Structure formats: structure tokens, C-alpha cells
């Protein structure tokens, strides 16, 4: 409950500023011109421009001011004394289009600023500035532009506008052009390819040895040393973003991260630093060069170069070192990334980035979780199912056959059930060992799993204290044993359905659902066939006994009708086991591959 309140409070702090500023009533930000979004502004220069229709003015003149660039959602425009850009806003504005812009009163000065009226997409804003009688010699306009909740630029400057014969400006004006160093283009014209992997460049791929040129579902990351830099190519199917990180261990946290985020049919390439499991801290793009991207067929591609070593920046790791590589993908909304869709791919071993070229494999599911899934599938798909069928239908097949002093059907049933309990107990503890406690990201699966565990342990305890056959309480035990076992099996199937989509063991969709449905239908079909067969054999046996009662003289005793169906039952058991093992093998093979 406490953690839920923390999440709600955190969400409240995130939502309040966004909703308060979406209507443009930003007078509280007049002085700083900075949105209170909880993110750092993007570095200047920006991809937006403020242009004027003149470079000279007199008090009382009107100057047309244009804000333009790629689409944006919010803005704030003010005029400041160019000698002191931290001063209050000067002059007043008039609107050209009142549907997309509105006037604000900054520093108790009426109509001294202009802002947006809503968060709808905009491409250009035009306003008129009215020069005051006490205007300073030099004026510079400033604008804050909000592209997305976390992507915004503060105090974007316009060209200088001055009065005639004004003295030279003593404070250097801010630059107005967009810096090409941080620019990036969509000049990737085709998919990356895997040629040179292991010879001229190091590659990480999932599935192993896939080729992004031919397989759109291939996650691909390559590193190529170019002089004192490393060229990076990253691609993969992504609805919102793909990312990779350098890490000293196989746990998230303190990682040098790079994200390619899809936004408005373009891709933003951002270096970031990941602290624990928190939202990554976006950082300056100054460390990246030659950035490029491409969007095609649902695949996000991006590439860039960065220096091998960046002195003084502890968040950009030296590429002369060796690191585990993480590759993740997920959804993004207006440039804000969400938690990755499934477990990140983590390389099996560390890669020396600038060392000899290698082909590295990896897995999205930790080995310990793979064992958890495998044990549960073996227990509740195979051993328990076969054990139940043997106990239900095969008592008459081996009525007097003994194995180690007990009837064969009972020994088979007991052995399979003991294996089920051992596998379940072993599988149950593995996620706790991996997480170091309870998982808060697995949904209902761990809760349902605890119920399965409790029922699995209860069954052998009940069996140990079962009454002897023929005693009055034996029927109560039989019903309780059957009921508990049935509930356990149904609950286990539900747990497996839920567990197949848990991030740490995310089996392919919708294949996993079809396979589980197929397995359940297979078991129900065989169970119905054996039930129907059992009904007709019992009926024939009863008719056979009635015939014997009417005919007291019999020279040859015919075999009981029930024994004639034993061969059919044995064939059905063999067919059922083969089908069951086929389903199990498919699941285990898939678990190994992820």
C-alpha cells in the first residue's frame, strides 16, 4: 500500500506541471522562462529560430517576430534588454492569430509576453512587438519552445535589433544558428547488414546470427573502430524506442546508455546515464558525432560515432574497457520512453569494444528463470498429467501386478507426483534467489504461483495421513484428494499462462498462447476418449455378468469385457505421452532460445 501511494504521489507531481502549462498560463515562468517539467532543457543552439522583419527600430515602432522550426507544442516569447538578458520583459505584444497564441502579463506589465493557448502541434507563430518609449538601445527577443514534455529549449535568442546610432553592445549576443555538431539526419538509406561481423566489427544479435538486412525482427548492434572513435550501428523492431547500454555487471544501474527514440516520424538519438531502475537521465549530445537514423517497415535504425575516451565525463565510459552489453526496446509517448516491453538482451560475457572483432550472443531471460520455467512446465504439463491419467484409468489394467511391494499403477502415480512436488518446490525458490525477494513487476503470476505451491505441498501431506481402504473416512479423503489435485492443476495452468508473458521469461506471442491452448485441448480430448471408453467397457462388463447369471451352465469362461479394452487404454496412454512430450519439447526448446 505504501509503495502504491508513492507511485500515485510521484505521478501527481509529474502530471500537475504538465496540465497547468498546457493552457499557456505560464506567468510563473516569466523570469526564468523555464518549464517546470522535472527535466533539464536541451542545450543551445536549438533547431528553432526567432526572426525579425528589421534590424533597426525607434521607440513606438512595431516589429514582426516569427518563431518557426519543426513542430512544437508550447512556447513563450519575451523581449529583453540585450545588455542584460536576465532583466524583466520590455515592451508589449499584439496578436496576429489569437487561436494559437495569447498575451501574458509579466512583471505586472500588461501584454509583455506571448504564449500558447493549447498543446496542439504548431509549426510557426507570428506576433507584433510594440516598442516602448523608454526602450533600451539594443533589444533581443527570447523564446522557450516545448517540443515534448522532456524536450524543450530555454531562451532561444533572436538576432539583435538596435536603435539608430546606438553605442556598441558591450555584452556579446547569444548565437542564433543551429549547431551542426548536434544535428542528425535521416541519411541511412538501407538496412544495416551483418557482413564483417566477427572480422572487421563486433556484433551483438538477437536471434543469434540474424541479419538485419534480411530479417526485420533482428535486433542488431555493431561497433567499428575508426581512428580514435567508434562507430555504432543499432537497429531493431520498435514501436517507440530501442536502446543499448554498457554495464560492468548484468544488473541495471550505473550504465552508459544510448537511446534511439521515435517521435513524430523521426528519431531522436540521446546519450543517457542509468542509475538503478530509475528513468534514464538524458545528457548532452555533444559527445556524439555523425548521427543518422532511418524508419522503415517498423524498424528503428540509428548510428553515430563517439570518441573512445571522453576525459572529465564519468558517465561516458572509456571504450577501451570491457563491458556487458544490454539491448532494450519499448514504447514511447511524445518522446518520453516507457519501461521496456520485455527483459533486455544481456550478452553472455563482456565485450572489449575496441578489441578484436567478435560475435557475441546473449539472452533475454536469465538462466535461473529459464530453469524455473522449465521445471514448472515439466511438472505441470507432463508428470502430473500422466500421473493423474494412470490413477484414474489404469487401476483395472494392472490389478494384481506389483512393483516394490505395491501395485504398479500406484507406484507410477506416486513416483510421478513426488517428482512433481520436487520440481515445483525447486522452481518456486528460483525467482526469489534471482530477485532477492518478492517481484513487483510480475503481475499476478507470483500470487497464483504461491497458491500452486501450497496445493502441491498439501497433496502429499494428505496422502501420508490417508485412511485405509474400506474405512468410513476413506471416501472423504478420496474426494478431498481429487478436489485439491484438480484445483492445483487448473491453477497451475493459469500460472503458466500468466508466466509466459512475464518480462523475465517472455515467450513469443501469440505462439505461446496457441501452444498452451493446444496442450489443454489435447489433455481434455484424451481424457474424454478414455472416459467414454471406460463407460462402454463398464457397461459391457455389466451385461456380461448378467448373461452369466442367466446361463448357469458354461463350458468355457469368457474373458471379462473390461480386460478386452486394456490394449486400447495402453495405446491411448502411449499416444498421450508422445503428444505431451511433443508439446513439452517445443516449450523447452523455445525457453532455451530466448
Keywords:
28 strands; seven-stranded mixed β-sheet; single chain; 594 residues; alpha+beta
Please characterize this protein's 3D structure.
The chain is α+β, with helices and mostly antiparallel strands. It contains seven helices and 28 strands. The chain has helices at about 1-20, 365-395, 410-435, 445-465, 475-500, 510-550, 565-594; strands at about 50, 60-70, 75-80, 90-95, 100-105, 110-115, 120-130, 140-145, 150-155, 160, 185, 200-205, 220-225, 230-235, 240-245, 255-265, 265-275, 280, 290-295, 300-305, 320-335, 335-340, 345, 350, 360, 360-365, 400-405, 405. Strands 15, 16, 17, 18, 21, 22, 23, 24 and 26 form a nine-stranded antiparallel beta sheet that branches. It has a seven-stranded mixed beta sheet with strand order 11-19-20-14-13-12-25, with no helix packed on it. A hairpin with a 6-residue loop joins strand 17 (about 265-275) and strand 18. The longest helix is centred in the C-terminal third of the chain and has 40 residues, at about 510-550. The radius of gyration is 36 Å and the shape is elongated. Mean pLDDT is about 85; it is low at about 1-20, about 175-185 and about 550-560.
Amino acid at each position: 500500500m505504501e509503495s502504491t501511494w508513492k507511485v500515485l504521489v510521484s505521478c501527481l507531481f509529474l502530471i500537475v506541471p504538465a496540465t497547468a502549462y498546457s493552457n499557456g498560463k505560464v506567468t510563473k515562468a516569466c523570469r526564468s522562462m523555464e518549464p517546470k517539467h522535472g527535466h533539464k532543457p536541451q542545450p543551445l543552439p536549438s533547431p528553432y529560430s526567432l526572426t525579425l522583419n528589421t534590424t533597426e527600430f525607434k521607440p513606438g515602432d512595431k516589429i514582426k517576430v516569427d518563431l518557426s522550426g519543426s513542430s512544437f507544442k508550447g512556447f513563450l516569447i519575451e523581449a529583453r534588454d540585450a545588455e542584460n538578458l536576465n532583466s524583466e520583459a520590455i515592451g508589449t505584444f499584439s496578436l496576429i492569430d489569437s487561436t494559437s497564441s495569447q498575451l501574458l502579463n509579466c512583471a505586472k506589465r500588461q501584454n509583455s509576453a506571448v504564449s500558447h493557448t493549447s498543446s496542439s502541434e504548431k509549426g510557426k507563430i507570428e506576433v507584433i512587438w510594440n516598442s516602448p518609449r523608454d526602450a533600451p538601445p539594443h533589444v533581443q527577443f527570447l523564446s522557450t519552445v516545448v517540443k515534448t514534455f522532456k524536450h524543450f529549449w530555454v531562451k532561444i535568442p533572436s538576432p539583435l535589433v538596435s536603435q539608430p546610432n546606438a553605442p556598441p553592445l558591450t555584452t556579446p549576443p547569444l548565437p542564433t544558428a543551429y549547431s551542426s555538431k548536434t544535428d542528425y539526419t535521416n541519411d541511412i538509406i538501407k538496412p544495416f547488414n551483418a557482413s564483417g561481423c566477427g572480422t572487421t566489427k563486433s556484433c551483438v544479435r538477437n536471434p543469434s546470427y540474424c541479419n538485419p538486412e534480411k530479417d526485420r525482427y533482428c535486433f542488431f548492434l555493431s561497433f567499428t573502430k575508426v581512428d580514435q572513435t567508434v562507430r555504432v550501428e543499432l537497429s531493431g523492431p520498435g514501436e517507440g524506442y530501442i536502446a543499448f547500454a554498457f554495464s560492468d555487471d548484468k544488473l541495471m544501474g550505473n550504465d552508459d546508455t544510448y537511446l534511439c527514440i521515435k517521435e513524430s516520424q523521426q528519431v531522436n538519438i540521446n546519450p543517457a546515464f542509468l542509475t538503478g531502475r530509475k528513468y534514464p537521465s538524458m545528457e548532452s549530445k555533444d559527445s556524439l558525432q555523425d548521427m543518422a537514423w532511418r524508419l522503415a517497415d517498423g524498424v528503428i535504425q540509428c548510428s553515430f560515432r563517439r570518441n573512445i575516451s571522453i576525459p572529465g565525463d564519468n558517465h561516458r565510459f572509456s571504450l577501451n574497457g570491457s563491458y556487458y552489453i544490454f539491448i532494450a526496446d519499448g514504447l514511447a509517448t511524445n518522446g518520453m520512453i516507457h519501461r521496456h516491453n520485455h527483459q533486455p538482451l544481456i550478452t553472455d560475457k563482456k565485450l572489449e569494444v575496441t578489441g578484436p572483432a567478435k560475435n557475441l550472443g546473449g539472452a533475454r531471460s536469465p538462466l535461473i528463470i529459464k530453469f524455473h520455467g522449465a521445471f514448472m512446465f515439466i511438472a505441470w504439463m507432463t508428470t502430473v498429467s500422466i500421473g493423474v491419467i494412470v490413477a484414474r484409468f489404469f487401476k483395472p489394467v494392472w490389478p494384481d501386478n506389483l512393483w516394490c511391494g505395491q501395485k504398479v499403477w500406484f507406484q507410477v502415480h506416486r513416483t510421478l507426483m513426488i517428482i512433481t512436488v520436487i520440481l515445483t518446490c525447486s522452481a518456486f525458490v528460483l525467482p526469489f534467489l534471482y530477485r532477492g525477494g518478492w517481484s513487483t513487476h510480475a503481475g499476478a503470476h507470483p500470487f497464483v504461483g504461491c497458491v500452486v505451491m501450497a496445493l502441491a505441498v498439501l497433496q502429499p501431506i494428505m496422502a501420508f495421513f490417508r485412511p485405509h481402504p474400506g474405512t468410513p473416512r476413506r471416501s472423504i479423503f478420496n474426494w478431498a484428494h481429487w478436489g485439491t489435485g484438480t484445483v492445483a492443476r487448473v491453477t497451475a495452468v493459469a500460472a503458466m499462462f500468466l508466466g509466459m508473458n512475464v518480462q523475465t521469461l517472455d515467450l513469443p506471442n501469440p505462439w505461446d498462447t496457441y501452444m498452451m491452448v493446444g496442450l489443454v485441448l489435447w489433455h481434455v480430448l484424451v481424457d474424454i476418449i478414455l472416459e467414454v471408453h471406460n463407460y462402454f467397457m463398464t457397461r459391457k462388463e455389466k451385461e456380461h455378468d448378467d448373461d452369466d447369471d442367466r446361463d448357469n451352465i458354461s463350458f468355457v469362461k469368457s474373458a471379462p469385457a473390461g480386460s478386452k479394452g486394456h490394449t486400447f487404454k495402453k495405446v491411448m496412454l502411449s499416444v498421450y505421452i508422445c503428444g505431451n512430450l511433443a508439446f513439452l519439447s517445443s516449450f523447452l526448446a523455445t525457453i532455451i532460445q530466448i
